[in-house]
Specification:
CATH architecture of the domain at 11-136: Orthogonal Bundle
Strand order of the largest sheet: 1-2
Number of strands: 2
Strand content: under 5%
Oligomer: single chain
CATH superfamily of the domain at 11-136: Winged helix-like DNA-binding domain superfamily/Winged helix DNA-binding domain
CATH class of the domain at 11-136: Mainly Alpha
Distance between the termini: 194 Å
Helix content: 40-55%
Structural class: mainly alpha
Length: 222
């Protein structure tokens, strides 16, 4: 009784059926069911999305499958599967060939995933390029840790004064000062007089002529 369960059945009956030797299809099915989620996550990182990872895993277990068969096996939409398969084929991560049907109609493509070693080998180059880019940025952004040379920040002063306005303002001030200066070209004869001085020679001639005229007039009267 020690080997039986509480329901009375032997313990061996509760164990899952193990595949027989040589049964390749059963081995593939069990291997697919036992794929760890961490491997799926890793494939999702390599293949960019979880959808593509599921398709890749399905094709590893079921090579030469059509898009409809992949959609049925993964539970994904057929349109999503066809689009993902086209991208994976362009990236050379799956291969395809026409499946020849006996009946009439179009021959669909049958897809097969490349080996995981080839998949990882192609990703190594991509990872190496990304790491080189990161290291290059680190070397460019690296700064000396001694702190011996402290650089002051650069200060930029912007003067929004128009040079033309500054020149016109200066000319206006100069012309105003010129108008305010007194006129010194004339002299006043007396207080409140602004009559310019006449030449002395003209004044003397006029005086002499007046005196001579008065003398002649007095002579005639006598």
């Amino acid at each position: 009784m020690g080997s039986d369960n509480t329901d009375g059945r032997p313990r061996e009956e509760n164990q899952p059926d193990r595949p027989r030797d040589g049964d390749d299809d059963a081995v593939r099915t069990v291997a697919l069911e036992e794929v760890d989620q961490r491997i799926v996550d890793l494939l999702s990182w390599i293949l960019d999305t979880e959808t593509r990872a599921k398709i890749y895993v399905f094709l590893l277990a079921n090579p030469a499958s059509t898009a409809e068969e992949v959609a049925t096996g993964t539970g994904l939409y057929p349109s999503t599967v066809r689009e993902a398969l086209a991208e994976l084929h362009d990236e050379e991560r799956v291969t395809r060939e026409k499946r020849v049907n006996d009946g009439a109609g179009n021959n669909p493509y049958a897809y097969t995933a490349i080996q995981p070693s080839d998949l990882v080998g192609g990703v190594v180059d991509q990872v190496q390029r990304e790491l080189n880019t990161i290291f290059t940025l680190d070397s460019i952004l690296e700064r000396p840790s001694d702190g011996g040379s402290d650089l002051e920040p650069v200060t930029i002063t912007v003067d929004d004064t128009d040079p033309t306005e500054s020149t016109e303002s200066t000319d206006h001030i100069d012309s105003t000062e010129t108008r305010d200066e007194p006129d010194t070209s004339t002299e006043t004869d007396g207080v409140g007089s602004s009559t310019p001085n006449r030449p002395e020679s003209d004044t003397d001639d006029a005086t002499d002529s007046s005196v001579a005229g008065d003398t002649d007039q007095r002579t005639d009267d006598e």
